[in-house]
Fold these 3 entries.
Entry 1:
Amino acid sequence: MENAGNAVRVLLIEDNPLHSKLVEKLLEESKAPDFQVTTVTTLAEGLARIRTREHDIALLDLTLPDSQDFATFLRVRAENPDLPVVIITGTDDLKLAARAVESGAQDFLVKTNLQSGPLIRALRYSIERTRVRDAEWNSPMFRLAQRQFLKAAQLMSLDDNIRQRLLFPQRTLVVSFPFRRDKYTEVETVFGYRVQHVLTMGPTKGGIRYHQDVGLGETSALAMWMTWKCALMHLPFGGAKGGVRIDPTVLTSHELQRLTRRYASEIMTMIGPDKDIPAPDLGTNERVMAWIMDTYSQQMGYAVPEVVTGKPVVLGGSPGRSEATARGLTYVVQRAAANLKIDLTKSTAIVQGFGNVGGNAVKFLAEAGLKIIGASDVSTGIYNPKGLDVNALFAYAKQHKVLKGFAGGEAMSNAELLEQKCDILVPAALQNQITAENADRINCRLLAEGANGPTTLEADEVLNKKGIASLPDILANAGGVTVSYFEWVQDTQNYMWTLDEVNSRLHKQMVDAYERTRTRSERQGVDMRTAAMIEGIERVAAAKLARGLFP
């Protein structure tokens, strides 16, 4: 809602007159903006005010005469989901306040610690974040990434200055550019993105995806997750991500090359072997990386293989890079299964997705002794409780390009496949596959996330209550960026490693990250995702504090 002048209209819902007077007095100290506070003492009065849409933000006490605890926030949220809400809480209700933030509140403040500076900043940042989100980052994936971060940040009591800084990427580039279709007179204009979340840790690192749903919010979420992933794996990178909003399956090879080279030229100022190193992601592959490398090298006047990773081995690519994500996932599944006393040779697995990650996961898990009873791609899911013939499945996919029509099992939707009973479930397709809607029907012992963001926070809570062990995405699918780091090291040193060396180093990195995450999870009594997030965030925060602030 737009507001005249510099005034911010605050709705304070608080029944304690002492706390109300304190908030009003502290906000009077603000020089800009000017806070105009309306105070009500019951939720009913608050909801009536919210219906008028006359306020920019709400300060909400969760314990009121006519409403108690988390239901108070839910009722406010239901009345106006777009209104930013900051919780004011007592020390005995911190868990409730944190839960409200996980569910969409912008922030929370402790009544006994209220000071003008933090209060004013919390309100201002909350309004700014809401407006920016609605204008540019309105993405379910980005909201999930922020909520995961905020949950971990609260549990680890992260410094507020650092917390505010890490909520959004440090650099973003949005470009629109043309490329010619094969019909030479036909020119198409598309949107491209490159986002760098954190520059503190060294060069940034992250993939490039071609997909029709690519946007600034999605790209920013992926860059944020890449920051935590690199930090968790102890890699000297910050997180980045890029992409083009296009369906690559409708492009010919010539069109794809023209698109790629033009996109590379548009982001040329951001990338470089010491600045930002792209890699393949959804809809891209080693051939796309070769075109980006060549485009960059043409501008430099000499070959720069270390500008990208995931390129062909003949151009300086690393052996094992293409299958590294699935191989790393298999390594942590094996380690987790050993800790959970799961005998993989007597266990079953279902893998959602049959691309680079999902297809290789099917292969490696089968080699590890698991019976693959389900697999899927965009066309269908295939389920056979007696076990799929993996060799026949790959042969069929190679011939027909999709799994639809494969006769070795029962056809079902991707959503139905996720709910079939198995020991190991691997969502390796897209985000938001396991949600509050279906989490209670997930029936596995171990969930290993091959995709980015396949599980929502609400689903996490359900799965944890059911006793399902989880390997979160920033750990389970970190094999790709880890071997990308190995490739970058090999290129910068002009010294190539063997496949055995790459896999041995990958195994060591993955197992080390898993054990650190498991130890933290057990020590702090938090789930594996939160433990992995804290591991990564703690390392980034330490680096920021060590470097200081310029100027």
Note: The chain is about 45% helix and 20% strand.
Entry 2:
Amino acid sequence: MKKYIIITLLIFASFFKVNGQESETKSTHVKIERLLFLIEQMYVEEVDENILRENLVTGMLNSLRPFSIYQNEEFFNLYKIKKNKSIQSAGFSLNFKKGKIVIDSIYNNSGAELAKLIKGDEIIEIDGNNLDEVYYYSDLLKLIVGDKNTEIKTKYVRSHESQDGEPVKDTIETSIIRKEINDLYVLPIGINHFNELKCISQYDKALEIFDYLYPDSISNATITENGIRYMLEQLDPHSTYISLKDLHDMNAPLKGSFTGVGIRFQVLKDTIMVVQAIPGGPSEKVGIMAGDKMIKIQDEIVAGIGISTTGVRDRLLGDKGTVVNVSIKRGISDELLDFSIERDKIPIYSVDASYMASPETGYIKLNNFSSTSISEIKKAVFELKSEGMKNLILDLQNNGGGYLRTAVELADELLPGSKNIVSTKGRKFPEKSYKTDRKGLLENGKLIVLVNESSASASEIVSGAIQDWDRGLIVGRRTFGKGLVQKPIDLPDYTQVRITTSKYYTPSGRCIQKAYEEGSVAYRREKYERYKSGESFNADSIKYNKEDIYYTKIKKREVYGGGGIIPDYFVALDTTGTSDYFDKLIRKGIFNQFALSWVNNNRKSLEKKYPSFNVYNKTFSSEKIMEKLIKYAEKEGLEYNEEQFLKAKKTIQVRLKANIAQDLYDYKRFYQIINELNTSLQKSLELMKDDKYFTKLDFKK
């Protein structure tokens, strides 16, 4: 009887598996057709649907691990794919491992076998093309696939041990012949070498193929998502796909809140250390304190298990109103304190710091443009004005943007009268202008906006409007150059796509979007290329189109489009006071770990000696504990280098003092100390004293 039950269960399981796959396939098909329709209807430029479909299929291919372009004759016959022996490849399968392209296997009688390549060899160059610039299999295919019996000049690295047992790497150059391999054919996906044979570009057929080629553990939905991401990336660098898993984390900073327990933490020595219980949050309400060590979460031991930051977040975040039980170790006592924390809405602040930088000049640092930014800024402005603020330095350095509406509202606070702030125009969308429409809090007084190569999008809207209306001085380095507007659209499975629909233009008419025709990788790398070209250090090296000239609205000064906002006053990137030793202290997390550990061990005496931040800022010197930092770093595996330490001594002292202040008081105090090293801010404080820099600007209505 049991035998028949088992057989019946297997039949039912098989039925549900097949029908589940069919349902998933239908769902992904609907999703793809909807997405293609949205792109055609909304995208900022004309699109070719055939190219979109080809890129979709190529993206599905690119995530295949390990990757092989070869399949046997039976496979081709099964999926009714035309065979072409005149097109061949090198004869190996590959894996991308930590940025390296490594041979996974060699096919018998292939060109790679005849060239004596073996499994584990790392391919670094093909026909003079450095593979450091290759990020997708499809890019590699363009280099290794070609006509039969042609040559591929290849450079590779082979690792082995010397006679003494030491690791050795040999760099070898050879030639591989694209040789015909019995019963194997090159799969026509992701490449354009097939002459009369078209590449497979139909989603339904490609999904059948990849459903076969991918491991059983990978669903059709995941395969499809791989394709969507690549397809959108070929449109422009800012059109993106967001899975259900990522949607919450991406939206939380813009919405200005998330749901959790309300702590800032750090994983220190395999232990979750509370850095701060967020004021007014659920953890503070039940008595969680800075320095507490979290040993258990929901009866699960989380100390000493190698837990990651993501692992902590997964356990502490959750729906509002749900309860998470934690066990805390406090101070030197071994007794665990149990707390029940009811998850609630936790604010995410976009104003990192606000304080009086000089007797008449306030400083506000904004990290993004969220839904709560304006209320945060208004609160900061009221406090600063009560302390005597007449002028403002607005720090938008490293601010990557956020909501367009928030940028418009901030510009409205800064610009007097009725003025255009920004305009958007797209292929399918008419021009729309955003104007100032109310009296702002910051319309008078000197204004300086700090920007750098990581100031983007909404930051550029604000700085562009301030510059075009001659309202203030833009100080720093050329901004990133993102002038594309994305519209978020929910897809049928509740995932989301953000499609570029428009470009935005500053009041003078310039589009600040930089070129992206060479692809997303080159687009993002351009910011770092400024360092190599000298632009980061010399204003004369700034790249801009001298023919793309516009004029500011009041003073008729020349400004330029097509590549970010060029500052009115250039401040070079400061690389003095740094060293490899200093960089490693940061990268290895030693500053944060040491400061948190030291404060935790000395918290009571520190609170007694420095009852307020002002007392701490005026009297505390980190020089007395530098030796402790050095010894701590050595225990963490960072060897002391006196020359490099002395080169960066002042920077290390300031950074350490800032980290300690963050742990002893709150994270906003970090900036008030670290800004001693902020060269753009320090230069701006000098500029504020000299009216000649502002005589060409209009501060009146």
Note: Residues 1-20, 193-197 have pLDDT under 50 and may be disordered.
Entry 3:
Amino acid sequence: MLSIIRRRAVVVVALAITIFTATTSILSELQSVPAAFAGSGDYIIHANDSPTIFSSRVDVGLVPLLLSQENISDAWAEIVTFSASGSQSFVVRGMNLDSVKSAERFAIDLRSELGDRFDPSDGIVGSRLMHALDIVPPCIIPVSGSYTTRVEFVEVVGSFETGTYLDDELVVSEQVARYLSGMPPGMASLIAVETDDPEWLGEVLSSDSAHFALSNVEVSKTAVVAIEEVMVTMEAHNWGSVADDATICISVNGILTDELTVAIDPTSVIAIMRPVILEQLGTHSIEVWVSGSFSSRTTLNVTVVDPYLTLAAPSTAFLGSQFEISVFDCYGAPVSGAEVSFEVDDERGSVITDDDGVVAILVSRTGSCFLNASYVDYDDASAVVQIVDLGLYPDEFLPRVVSFVLSDDSVSESDEVKGVIVVENTGAVEGLFYLPVLMDSSTKMLLNISLEPAERRSVTIAISDIAVGTHTIQVGAFAHELTVEPWFADESDLVQLMLRYGGTGALSSGASVPIYQAAQISEGNVAVALFSVGAISAVLATLAISATFAKEVREGRRTLGILRTIGASNGRIRRIVLPQALFSGAIGAVIGIIAGITVTYALTRAGAFIAFGHALVFEPDVYVLALITGWTAVISVASSLASAEVAVRESPLSSIRNLDGRNSIEADESRGSPIDE
């Protein structure tokens, strides 16, 4: 077969593809380096308004809320910072090795070597960094912060090798990394997450639509009489990024009784109050929820009781003196005509309240006076008054706490808890009793209680603004534990997760962290630079290959002209050029790819490329290499056929003489035409 394309074309193609393969391979690895900052987590959460991963600030309080979700298998906080030891710069990663599942390989390897000597506060070094620092654990190295003027002496107790970018890092405790980076307390650079539903988590953290949640859902009363109005109050939040209408629903015993639609701006909250009327006696379940993909529900119980009386009486009265009693109905109105009976030892009697609901009683016995108030269609009320002989008490002020009880031992975060303190003066002199109420050994409030001689008094207190958790409330010698639950009755951790962190973070795959999150000066400029270099390399390789094959075909015009002279058709000429171009392009591409991979592998193995504190680790992509081979073959064939098409359109004589058509005609005219002769 006639040779139109010579072997030198293979050499040019091989050189072009070698340069292109090495360039794109290094750029590809550079593009993937930011994934190193994800460590071993499947996904990471970082601040969506931070220009770099090193300036990212994420609240570590997000971790326990994430771990409370069923579709989160693990979550932990990490502090990532640039540091240096001597002349070597590297990445320091702070984490709690004792509590992180994905870091168990470090701890297990070290414990197998060090046993009880392993301390999670020590440092462990990656294999590549260990060789770069030229150290042999155990040893102590000075590590300085890149963003602070702080130096920490880290005891490196062991090394690890994972085959990942972690091998370029020094792993230390959170405390050391926080000190070196200047990270504020309670914050971290990122939170690594292992989840089977990243789409759900991404929507929670960085919502691009409206999402609603309810908080501080309360009822005005937990016990009411029939047909008495109960007010349900709440706060509706929109933690999404766009305004929308939220539909708030209220049901009683499973039956929808109220539905309200309100417009809520993004990242806003509005207060809502809705009335509910209950008719039947007994306990009723009031459920409140809001529409949306993360619907939050809260259930409250309200009891309907018969109308009842309340009786106000002093706790202590003196022998031989009258004391007054007031009777009210359940709405706080005085009850006229109510019968009040009393009994102390064997002395009994009854009186009727006046128009103001008040009655005066005089007894001649000491001891406990039992009172009972009754009225038609109302439940009775009762009380006890201690009748004392003042002459039997010391002539001084002697206050003491008799008892202390809480209205409930468990309340929600937004609720207040009531307490009843019974105090008495065991002396015959009046005075002012300064009584501290302690919460977790600190003074929550200070009561000033005025006590008459021999007086016993009940004091009601209300404690609010209590953090979630278990607390000890103490008054005098009496102490009670109080548990404060989160705002929400159902899915409380999820709702808190949305309200506190919704829209404040970004979720990225550990394999696709945007490069500007690791090293941008202005958003996207590094990615643009990488793309530009790759595009320029591709264009230059394309031009080199196209020019080479076009030149080869052009220099073979004489051969093509001879073929046409002996009768070869245009199609025949194309069939001669096509396989030669395809073979030469493919062979050159394969040789160039092999050479490019060899060069890239040698450079990365030698540590010639360090990006953001991590050495490039070359892993060839089979699909990319196949694409390069195919692209090279297409360019070779296309440029060859295009040149061949130009050649076959010339006259055979021009091709043989290796002249263009215009010069050939001029030459013929200068010699004269055969016809003219």
Note: The CA atoms of residues 66 and 523 lie 29 Å apart.
